[in-house]
Specification:
Order of helices and strands: HHH
Number of helices: 3
Number of strands: 0
Structural class: mainly alpha
Largest sheet: none
Oligomer: single chain
Number of domains: 1
Helix content: over 70%
Radius of gyration: 15 Å
């Protein structure tokens, strides 16, 4: 079952990385987005398969990671302080 989930996630990642890079996202931006997708798949697995509840501290942690995606993608590389 774990290999099936990993394979499903991989099937989403490869085209997403190719499409993202082709549309101008940097390697850093793609990696941050990849981590969010991985965590999203795991949260769904933990919730539906393992029967675990999403507690407030995990929800806040996930929201902060989503905020990291915003900061990684909202500003152009090379801007203030970037290279």
């Amino acid at each position: 079952m774990a290999w099936g989930i990993a394979f499903f996630e991989y099937c989403l990642m490869v085209p997403a990385n190719r499409g993202g890079y082709a549309s101008g996202l940097s390697g850093y931006q793609l990696k941050i987005a990849q981590e969010v997708i991985t965590l999203g798949v795991f949260v769904a697995f933990a919730w539906f398969v393992l029967g675990e509840k999403l507690t407030w501290n995990y929800a806040v942690s996930f929201a902060l990671i989503l905020l990291a995606v915003y900061f990684a993608t909202a500003f152009k590389p090379g801007g203030a302080g970037g290279r």
